[in-house]
Amino acid sequence: MSKKNVYMDHGATTPVRQEALEAMLPFFTELYGNPSSLHAQGRDVRKAFEEARRITAASLGAEPDEIYFTSGGTESNNIALRGAAKKQGSGHIITSSIEHHAVLDVCKDLEKQGFTVTYLPVDQFGLVSLEDVEASIKPDTFMISVMAANNEVGTVQPVSEIGELAAKHGILFHTDAVQVVGQIPLNLKELNVDFLSLSAHKFNGPKGIGALYKRKGVKIDPLYHGGGQERKLRPGTENVPGVVGLSKALELAVGELPQKADALEKLRDRLIEGLMEIDDVLLNGHREKRLPGNINVSFQYIEGESVLLSLDLQGVAASSGSACSSGSLDPSHVLSAIGLDHQTAHGSIRFSLGRGNTVEDIDYVLDIMPPIVERLRQMSPVRKEGG
Amino acid sequence: MSKKNVYMDHGATTPVRQEALEAMLPFFTELYGNPSSLHAQGRDVRKAFEEARRITAASLGAEPDEIYFTSGGTESNNIALRGAAKKQGSGHIITSSIEHHAVLDVCKDLEKQGFTVTYLPVDQFGLVSLEDVEASIKPDTFMISVMAANNEVGTVQPVSEIGELAAKHGILFHTDAVQVVGQIPLNLKELNVDFLSLSAHKFNGPKGIGALYKRKGVKIDPLYHGGGQERKLRPGTENVPGVVGLSKALELAVGELPQKADALEKLRDRLIEGLMEIDDVLLNGHREKRLPGNINVSFQYIEGESVLLSLDLQGVAASSGSACSSGSLDPSHVLSAIGLDHQTAHGSIRFSLGRGNTVEDIDYVLDIMPPIVERLRQMSPVRKEGG
User: Fold this and answer.
1) Which end of chain A has fewer CB atoms within 10 angstroms, the N or the C?
2) What's the pTM value of the predicted model, to 2 decimals?
3) Cβ-Cβ contacts under 8 Å, B228 against chain A
4) Structure ipTM
5) Which residues of A touch B311 (CB under 8 A)?
């Protein structure tokens, strides 16, 4: 069996699809004007830019003036949470204990500024409970932020139901949908959210560009000041090629749903079932309420990092923890929150499937995995003690 | 004389040069990994990314760990000023009255948060005086921010001398060098600055990417939280193609100095001298301490916007005020600060020259300009009263 190149880290980032890159190219060298300029070069670019906004909005079931382009998911999350906090001045925020650091660490910083925060627990599958959300609401709660799906274990949260609860209590609701947009059908006309964050590089668009959906009429304070771009919420000369690439990738990704999701789910389930045949392997996250491309498993008695390196040597790209916090020795806060002990958390690996992955990729991984696990377990001191 | 396409709005933005675009391309579709990922795809990208940081630093006379990549000049300015303010908690800031809105409006917002700000006046040429800077220093002054050169009238400030003053008093010094980097030779080893902001799209790099230089050892608080990218000062998955494009464009632009600046100055002076032959035209800004590509003139008795439209119809792209605040009816705060009355300010036009502009471009503008001015003045009610 010859070495293959198998990329299964689409949760970390994805390649830009050819159609998106081609859509971007003219905006580097030909249609390069500043969209704020009044001359023909500027006006032509403004027109294309606003068309990209229209496409982005339509792909999400939103209105164009509800879309604010940002530099990515991290900035979208920061603008939503900090912008609402800045406008509010003080009060209480509810979030979950398994959010991405771009929500969790913002909340911790807001605590330093005098805000109070409830970090909701999750069950063993990574699910937030609606009862917990409702029980946490205080008179001064102004924001609930719960991610649409978790980046590590793939658990999909009951976003619409949480949003309904928030609306009933007159509380703003934000969801970090970075892992969901382009992966699961989603319509903002039906979701009860006030803010939604997305990032282009997670759905085969370019890095360095994202968007924040903000429901019409919802008011927050800007964090940055400068020119009047993005209706003053996100100033700075617009990243026109980035926005065009985002809109093209989003339009295509959404157009390919739900077929693409079904296909990914089949691949995912084939990989999960194959991996579970290895001894002492646990599936992390929820079996059904799960991102179509996410597989997260713990191999008992061995280090996830060692598995990763062995996979890497055989051409397979996967991840342990999220790429954003690689290098850290702490076990993932997500795996701790779903109740994994330290050792099991450290033996976990995420495979995240996406565009381009095939049955052959899955079978290649299933072929090389058992000997990798076997070899590492033979070298493992934990295994010797345990077994 | 046939219509030409003449782009003279390089102060607003520039086309991406071919070498920069070509350097970027592999990072969209082949080297697409997340630089934080541990697998080969991630490691290869990390290597290229840090090489781009090294090139960026070397081009500025800085160390690689003094460079923080951002989404552009606006974000760099916000991080420097707000980050220092957040760390400081309270105190006094000195800036000039002709800063870009990405500094000026940040200062106004910080005033709302309890900070005090001195907005230094400028002389009729747009120069800040060192005496004014020193006289404004208070015991609680923690930051001076003066732009390296003005985006509208092109006046180049005595940055090194202001920096020396700041250092003498133990005050941080930030300069918005968005209009200067790649235009004038600059060496951070010799400039006495703690922070410097730059933006790639002003020197034939891509939009949506910039950098903040922060002198080693200077501490500020981050504004956004998320992953640990850019040593936690600017989290979010790195815009790898953008950074590669920035570094390539910067390396080439700096390598072409000072010859390029000399050539631009010749073109600039030819345009200034030609325009001054038209009756009732004033040069705004300083005759010598001026960006090599900047021409800003006021045509008495007529509206700058009308001149712009006439130029546009004949294929010439220029600007009135800065592109960032176009659409506003207020006269430019810069032109007001140098003492222009309302009417004169409204008759001003900026031509900003850059890569690709030729003597033929200059002569084309000098050919079409007198009849445009003549025709508009004939239609002008102000002219009828005045003349």
Assistant:
1) N
2) 0.96
3) 324-325, 327-328
4) 0.96
5) 39
